[in-house]
Amino acid sequence: MILTLAGENYLNTLLKDEHGRALYRIDTPYRLFGGGRTTVTRLTGQTDHDIAWIEWNMLSPDEFHQHGRTVEASQHLPHKGFFGTCVSSFSRRDDVLIESRKRVLVASDGQSYVWKDGSHGVKVNHTAVPTCPAVVCSADPSPPNPRQLDCDDAALSRVAEYHTRSLGFFSKGHPAYLEIAADGVPILDDIVASFVYMEKKRQQRKRSRASAAAGASASAGA
C-alpha cells in the first residue's frame, strides 16, 4: 500500500491511497508561539474517527493520546539504546543532538516495533519471530535514505517506510509517501500516528544540527 501526502507539510495534509482516496487527515492548527495539537483522523467516507492526537508542549513533555489513554510521548514511544536511558538528564523535550534515533512502538497487535530515522526519512520493520523485540534498522545508504520501522533481530521484515519528496535531480521525482507492507496494514493507525511524531523529531534534530554547524562556523571565522 502507498499513502501519498497531498501536500508538503506533513503536519497539515491528507494521506491518499493508490486510487486517490483520502484515508487519513493530519491537522495542526497554526499557533503564533509554537506548541499546539496535531490530530490524526481516519477517513471512512461516512463517520470520520480521530485515532490519535499529539500535544506539542513548550514547557513540559509532549503528550500522546491513542487507544483511550494519554501519556507523555516518551512513554508512548520510548527511546531504545544507551541514550534512551540518559537523554532525560540533558533535556525534557527530547530534541538534543545526542538522543537515540530509535524509538519503540508497542502497536495495537500487542507486538513491539522500533522506529529509526535517517537523514531524509524513517522506516518500520517487524521480525519473523513473534517473540522477538522490535527495532528499526539503519536507513538505506542510497537515496532517499528514508525513515524506517524495524524489529531488532536477524530476521527482518519491512513493515513501513517513509520516502521524502524527490525533485528528480538524481532519480525519478515523486511526492512524499508512506510505503506500507502487507504486514503493516493491520496496524496502519499506529504507523500513521507514530510517523507524525517521529518525523517532527527528525526535523527538529535536523534544524538543531544546522544551527550548531552555523554557530561553529561563525565562531571559527571570528
Automatic annotation (TrEMBL):
At the highest ranks, the source species' classification is:
Eukaryota, Fungi, Dikarya, Basidiomycota, Agaricomycotina
Q: Which residues form the DUF6593 domain?
A: 9-203
Entries under Pfam families matching the protein: DUF6593
Q: Where is the composition biased (Low complexity)?
A: 210-222
Sequence segments annotated as region (Disordered): 203-222
The protein here is known as DUF6593 domain-containing protein
